[in-house]
Amino acid sequence: MSGQVGAAEGGAGLGGQWAFGQYVIRRNAAVLQISSLMMIVFSGLMVVAAALLIARSRRGGQHGAPRTSPVATIVALASAVGLLLSYATIYLTYRPYWYIFQRAILYGDRSQVRDLRDFLIAIRALPGIGWGSSLSANFPMYFWTGVTLLSVTGLLLIVLRHFLGQPRANKLQHNPRVP
């Protein structure tokens, strides 16, 4: 009877003791979320730096600010290092929970499944916002909808620019001053 009551309460049925504890689980979830956000920021900086470097190379490097290339190169390098460190942080944060999952699946060891469950719940909640709020439940859908809409808008702008305006190279080829 006591086993059925423990399983109905949700905690004892998952098998056991805490390996990490609530504080460590919440801290790991916060570190994971911050590292993920930093990857988005570093990716954005990398795209901007790459766009500046590509635009400068297409113009032949003659026009524009002479300091654009070194600054863009430094930003691209810093972004690459930031992406690498963020990736390493995410990997090291997920790794212990992967081993818990692997042991539970392969060997049936349920001794630390409670930690895994609480970690997965903690990473779904936004930092500073409780799990029960409607914003935390709908935020991933709103975020990815926004990313998708921005991507589609960017693609439409590229297609419109291509079809409505001729590329710059064609205009130069038909210029009477160019031999």
Global mean pLDDT: 74
Low-pLDDT runs: 1-13
Distance between the termini: 94 Å
Residue share in helix: over 70%
Domain count = 2
Q: Main β-sheet: number of strands, strand sense, barrel status?
A: none
Explain this structure.
The chain has 179 residues and is mainly α. The chain folds into two domains: 18-124; 131-179. The protein has helices at 2-9, 22-58, 68-107, 113-124, 134-164, 168-173. α2 runs antiparallel to α3 and α3 packs antiparallel against α4. The longest helix is centred in the middle third of the chain and has 40 residues, at 68-107. The protein is elongated and about 80 Å long. The termini are far apart.
